[in-house]
Amino acid sequence: MLATGGTIAGSAGDASKTAGYKAGVVGVDKLLDTVPALGSVARIHAEQIAGIDSKDMSAALWTTFARRIDALLAQDDIDGVVVTHGTDTLEETAYLLHLTVKGGKPVVLTAAMRPSTALSADGPLNLLNAVTVAASKDAGGKGVLVAFNNQIHSARDVTKTSMYAVDAFRSPETGVLGFVQDGRVEFQRVAVRPHTGASEFAVADQWPMVEIVASYADASRVVVDALVAAGARGIVVAGTGNGSMHATLTQALAEAVKRGVAVVRASRVGSGHVMRNGAASDDALGTVSAGTLNPYKARVLLMLALAASTNDLQRIFDTY
């Protein structure tokens, strides 16, 4: 078990409050003590990798996580890895690990919407379920998983959809992979896109600068121009609808592409598929469509592709 902080390790002075707490302050040993049933599921070796609020996650920590997980999975006495994480950027970390961890043993992320001190804290059960999934003989080879609220999600598909509900994570386009309840783990489908050992990517020592901009009514080009001037190598657009972009923004991005900046069209809408527009847009502008990836996961994939000096970016987004 690798602990990174987050709400699951959060603490507040008032048990009736689920906001205004301090994230990442409860150590992993104390987390384990709150769930005695874990001892009947697995023998656990715990490490405190970080103690942060996941809104402050960094690419450097991603590199640390991925390399430590690969090292652990290479050990004969390790059958799986559970990562405790904050909910804010869990989907980004999970997708990054999904594309970079090479071992075939289970890797399961979990988190909580309520701090450990709250009434009806959801962290202990999520933690128990995550360990149960990681210990399951059926969980290997399915890529990085997220166990949350009795459901098992693929790291590629899952996203946070609520600011407060304990069922905050959903897989809008594809649905869950399966469920875990009372020690029972059942998978109903598998992720078909390449991941883990079948992925061509690895974490980097130096990450390219990739940022996200949004399209909206009366959008300006100020942010795009500033990013290009700052040396950004990639820009992901959280577009409207099918990844559409304001005309002013489109002009700025077309100029950015001519200056060697990779531009990916995603959507700010919660579900759907950004279709490649061909001659009408992408071919003319030199942009890439993100498919079903939201802007934040599209940024992760673009960072990996640019770090690997991959040229055919549309192939990458169509594949992963």
TrEMBL record:
Top-level class of the enzyme under EC nomenclature: hydrolase
BP-aspect Gene Ontology terms: asparagine metabolic process
Enzyme Commission number(s) from the entry: 3.5.1.1
SMART domains referenced in this protein's UniProt entry, alphabetically: Asparaginase (SM00870)
Key words, A-Z: Hydrolase
Classification via CDD domains: L-asparaginase_II
Residues covered by the L-asparaginase N-terminal domain: 2-190
Active site (record annotation): T7, T87
Residue runs in coiled coils: none
Molecular functions per Gene Ontology: asparaginase activity
SUPFAM superfamilies, sorted: Glutaminase/Asparaginase
Presence of keyword Hydrolase: yes
Pfam family, one: Asparaginase_C
Annotated positions binding substrate: S54, T87, D88
Start and end residues of each Asparaginase/glutaminase C-terminal domain: 210-315
Record-stated family: Belongs to the asparaginase 1 family.
Entry-linked NCBIfam families: asnASE_II (TIGR00520)
Cited PANTHER family: 60 KDA LYSOPHOSPHOLIPASE (PTHR11707:SF28), L-ASPARAGINASE (PTHR11707)
Name of the protein: L-asparaginase
Protein's organism: Candidatus Paraburkholderia kirkii UZHbot1
